[in-house]
Amino acid sequence: MEELKxxxxxxxxxxxxxxLAAAAAAAPILAACQPTPKTGGSGKVTVMTxxxxxxxxxxxxxxxxxxxxxxxxxxxxxxxYAMFAAGNPPDVFRVQAAGLPQYISRKMVKNLxxxxxxxxxxxxxxxxxxxxxxxxxxxxxxxxxxxxxxKDWSPDFTLFAYTKAFDDAGVxxxxxxxxxxxxxxxxxxxxxxxxxxxxRVYWGFVHSNNDQWIDRTAMNMLAEKNQNxxxxxxxKLVISGNPEATKVIRYLYDLAADGVNETPxxxxxxxxxxxxxxxxxxxxxxxxxxxxxxxxxxxxxxxxMLPAPTWAxxxxxxxxxxxGWVISSQTKDPxxxxxxxxxxxxxxxxxxxxxxxxxxxxxxxxxxxMPQQTDFQKQVQKVLQGELSKSDFILQFNPYIGxxxxxxxxxxxxxxxxxxxxxxxxxxxxxESEVNTAIADGKRIIGG
Amino acid sequence: MAGATHxxxxxxxxxxxxxxxxxxxxxxFYLLVSPWLLGFVLLSAVPLAGxxxxxxxxxxxxxxxxxAFVGVDNYARAFSDPEAxxxxxxxxxxxxxxxxxxxxxxxxxxxxxxxxxxxxxxxRTIFYLPYVIPVVAGAWVWKIFVDPSGxxxxxxxxxxxxxxxxxxxxxxxxxxxxxxxxxxxxGGGMVIFxxxxxxxxxxxxxxxxxxxxxxxxxTRFITLPLLTPVIxxxxxxxxxxxxxVLVQPMLLSPGILGLSPGTVPPLxxxxxxxxxxxxxxxxxxxxxxxxxxxxxxxVVLGLTLVLFGTSRRWVHYGVEA
Lengths: 448, 321
Description:
The structure holds 2 protein chains of 2 kinds. Chain A is α+β, with helices and mostly antiparallel strands. Chain A is built from 16 helices and 14 strands. The longest helix of chain A is centred in the N-terminal third of the chain and has 24 residues. Chain A is globular. The longest helix of chain B has 40 residues. The two termini of chain B are 31 Å apart. Chain B is flat and about 80 Å long. Chains A and B meet through helix 1, helix 2, helix 4, helix 15 and helix 16 of A and helix 1 of B.
C-alpha cells in the first residue's frame, strides 16, 4: 500500500507540472517586482541597422572612437516591434521618414535637440534639408526639435533611363536638363515598353520601389498642388472626396493598367534595381543613391540620370525615405547612444559614405566629397545639382498609421482591380476604408 | 522438471526503502522531462497567456503607456471583419484541397516504399527530402519552376501546347500553394504511415492471402483498418498545420521573394494567418491580431473535437483476440 501512495501517477505528474509551470511563469513577474538595477553605463550600445549600411569597419571605427562596445541587430520592422513589445528596444535604430511621426507621437524616440545643441560634429547650420524630416513640433514633422538624422539621402524622384531601350524603340532619350511632365512620362513609357512572345523585354516605367512607397509618390505629386492624401488633421485618407487626389491615384493606377510597371499581375521575380541592371527597365524612378549601382556590365555607358518629373509645373524633389537613425526613448544610456550616433553621422563613417556615392551626405559640408570621376558620375552630379534646389520640402506622413499601411492596402486591392474583379472606384473605396480604419485605431490608441 | 518447483523466499521491502525508491523515481522523471517542460512553459504557455491578455487590449506593440483594456471588442470586431471572413474561407478551402490529397499521396508513397524492392531506402530518402528542405529554399525553387519565362512547368506544358506562357503565381496561386504545401508535407506523413504499415503484423496479411484475398482486398480489409489510427493522426495534424499556413503564401507571392510586412499575397492566397500577420505587423493592431489567432485556435479545437467525435466510428485501435 505504501508503494502505491508513492508511485508516480498521471495526477501527480500534472500537479507537479502545474507547480513547475506556475513557478516558471511567476519567476519573471516576481523578478519584475524587485527594484530594477540600473544598467546604464554598461559600455554597450545596441544598434539596429541594415548591415549593408554599417560595415564591420564602421563598427570598429565607432568602437575605437567611442570606447564603447557596439552590438548590431539586423534592421527589420517585425524584430523592432517585437523588441519594443518585450520592453528591450535597441538603443539606436534605423528608421525611414514615413515611420517617424508614428514613433515620435508614441514617445518611442528621444528628443535629440539638447545633444545637437552641444555637438561639435553635427552643427545645425550644416544639416542637409532632408534632416527636417526628423523635426517634430508636437503635431507635424518639418518644424521643431530634432529627433534624429539622415545617414544620407537623395532627391528620390529623379529618373534613370536605359538608353538602349529608347534606341530599340526609335525614341529619343529625354533631355537631362528639362524635366518631363508625368503625362509625357506616361506616353514615353508606353512607347518604350516592350514584350516579345509574351515575355518581358522592357518595362516602360517602374517606380515607387515596387509600390512599397506608392503613397510617397502620390503625396509628392499632390504637393505640387499644395494638397495631401490626408485631411489636415490626418484623421482621414481623402481620395474620392478630393478630385486632385483622385487624379493622382488614377494616374498611378493607369500606369499599372498600361502594363508599363511591375504589378501584382505582371510581376518581376527581382526588385526593380536588379531589373534595371539586367537591362529590363527603360525608365526607373530612384534617387541619386542608385547611381552608385546603376551601371552594371549590361547598362554601363547606356545609362543617364534625368531630373524628377513634374505633375503640375511646380517641381519638388525631396527624399521619400530620409533613412537615418534615432535613439530609443527607453535607452538606459542615452549619452553612450548619442556618442555612437554622433560619430556615425559626423565622423569617419559619414565621410566614407559621402565618398562612396551611395547618397547625398547628411551634412552639407560633406557634399564636395561625392564622387565625380567618371563620365556617368559627372552627368549625375550635373543633374543632382539642379535637383538639390528642389529638395527642401517635407512629405507629411500620417502619425496614426504604420509606414506600410497604405501601400499594403494598395497592393492588396490592385490585383483584383487589374484583373477586373473590382472597379477603379471600388479600388479607391477599399483603400480608403482600410486605411481610415487603421487611422481610427491609431487615434484611439494615442489620442488626438 | 515436473513437480520441481522452487519457492523463492518472499522478502517484503520495508516502507522507508520503498518511499525512497519512489521519490528517486519521481525525481528522475521530473529531471528528465524538465527541459521540455521548461521549454513549454517559457516558450509556449507564457506567450499564450500573454497573447490572451493582449487580445483584451488595444496594444499596438509600440508603447505600453498607451495600453487600455477593451474587453471582448477585438473578438466582436473579428466577426464583422470582411477580410477575416474572406481569409478564413480561403484557408478552409486550402485545407479541403491539401489535407485529403496529401493523405492519399502520403499513404501511396508509404505503400510504395514499404515494398521489398531494391533501392527502397533511396526512394524513401528522396521522398522525405522536401520535408527537411527549409521552406524558403523550397519556395524559391518552386518560384523558378513556375516562372512564366523559362520555368520548368511552362516548358513541360509547352511541349504539348506550343507558345504557352502561363503566369502560375498570378492566374493559379491557390493551385501552386496547394501543390507546394502537399509536396512539402508528403515526406513527413509518408514516414509516419510507413511506421504504421511496419507495425502491422505480417501474419494478418499472410493469413488473408492464404484464405484467397487479393492484394487489393488485403489492403482494403486488413491494412487500411489497422492503419486508421495513423490516418487519424495524420488527418488531425494535417488540418492543424494547414490552418496555420503563413509563410508559404507570403513566399509564393508574385514578385520578390520575401517575408516582410510589405509582402501581400494574391487575394486567393490571402489566408487567415496572413491576415492576422498583417493586422499585427503592418497595422500594429497586436491586440486584434491576438484575438484573431485565438479565434483560429477555437476553430482548430472545434474541428479536432469533431474529428475525435467521429473517430469512434472509423478508427480501430488494436485487435482484440
